[in-house]
Amino acid sequence: MIKKLEHSARQVAEGIFTIFQTSYAIEADLIGCDDFPPLARSIKNIQDSPSLFLAAVVNNCLAGVIEIELQDKQLDVHSLTVAPRFFKQGIASELLSHVLTTFDYQQAQVETATANRPAISLYKKHGFVEFNRWTPAHGIEKLALHKQCESLY
User: Fold this and answer.
1) Do you know which PROSITE patterns this protein is assigned to (predicted)?
2) How far apart are CA 25 and CA 81, in angstroms?
3) d(Cα 63, Cα 89) in Å, to the nearest integer?
């Protein structure tokens, strides 16, 4: 089941934070990064975020979280994380598919590390294509992918 999270509530933000910490620690290892910026995010930052957070809930457990913003028909995926015990169960795909079929957007965009092959594969499976690569100041090479909404007309 996918549900909207009230991330401004401390207990909810703590649950999101826990998934971020466990999932991003594994991603940091995967891409070979000792100082991974998403791991520095605080509970307070999550609570104060203007983003929308949606969760996949399995047996009353927070299995995965997707963080998005939608402005002027531009859908930005800021994070997509899955609790490690729910890896390889289709949770990330379910969350991404839900967002792409629920919200009214013209273009969706996401960024990830170029070394994060599982994430890149997931986004490409959902119709995203690469359009930019760069290396920010933190030194982790990134790529941006986007997807145009399929028009009904």
Assistant:
1) GNAT
2) 11
3) 10
Half-sphere exposure of 5 (CA within 13 A, CB side): 32
* CA pair distance 93, 96, nearest whole angstrom: 5
Q: What is the pLDDT of residues 11-51, one digit of tens each?
A: 999 999 999 999 999 999 999 998 899 999 999 999 999 99
Q: What is the value of pTM for the model shown?
A: 0.95
Strands 107-113 and 74-82: parallel
Domains in the chain, CATH or no CATH each: 2-148 (3.40.630.30)
Q: What are the tens digits of pLDDT across the range 69-114?
A: 999 999 999 999 999 999 999 999 999 999 999 999 999 999 999 9
H helix or E strand, kind and range, residue 120: helix 117-125
- What's the CA gap between 83 and 61, in Å, rounded? 10
